[in-house]
Amino acid sequence: MRKLLATTGAAIIVAYAVYGALLMNNWAVVAASGIPLDETIAEMAAMDQDYDSIGGWVFAAIGIALAISWLVSVIASGRKLPAWAAIGTWSLILALGAPAYFFGSFANMNAVGDTFADWNAGAAADLEEPLYIASSLALALLAAMGILGLRAALTRPPRPLAQASR
Question: What are the start-end ranges of the H helices in the chain?
Fold first, then answer.
């Protein structure tokens, strides 16, 4: 069961990273400009504004690397890693996804806004909303796991000194 849940958790992180990358590099840019991506990039270039897909690729690569690292560490640790700690680290990864997405997408969205006076920031925000909701829920889950971890630490009987030094 632990492997299934860990694999599902890693898949959610990967989906978040890939969705965020597609938004950064294409969907949010197109939604905000209201025209196809190639035309958007051409108009941005004509206005001396840069479009760069590297941010999206980096966002996806880091997200996938974090998902794999988290999956391997949870499975390899077995029962040594408490469930609250595994869920907490997963939640931390997703909670930090929103600020990472914001900073990664800022340059392209700023360029769209500088190029198109009538750009539709709301259309891009509608597409980005699932990322921000997921990160907010993950932050709440992280807080809950922190409370569970603190409770476990405070209610655990103290170990004898000889065992603690091993």
Answer: 2-22, 28-33, 37-46, 54-77, 83-95, 97-115, 121-155, 161-164
DSSP 75-99: HHHGGGS-HHHHHHHHHHHHHTHHH
pLDDT value, residue 163? 60
The C-alpha atoms of residue 75 and residue 137 are separated, in whole angstroms, by: 24
Q: State the Cα–Cα distance between residues 158 and 164, nearest whole angstrom.
A: 9
- C-alpha distance from residue 79 to each of 5, 85, 93, 140, 161 (Å): 14, 11, 21, 24, 23
Cβ atoms of residues 106 and 99 within 8 Å:
no
Cα–Cα dist 111/42, whole Å: 12
Q: Note the pLDDT of residue 47.
A: 96
- Contact (Cβ atoms closer than 8 angstroms) between residue 105 and residue 19: no
Listed as ranges, residues in the chain with pLDDT below 50 are none
Which string of b and e fits 14-38 if b means at least 16 CB within 10 Å? bebbebbbebbbbbbbbbbbeeeee
In whole angstroms, give the CA distance from residue 133 to residue 121.
Answer: 18
First to last CA, the chain: 30
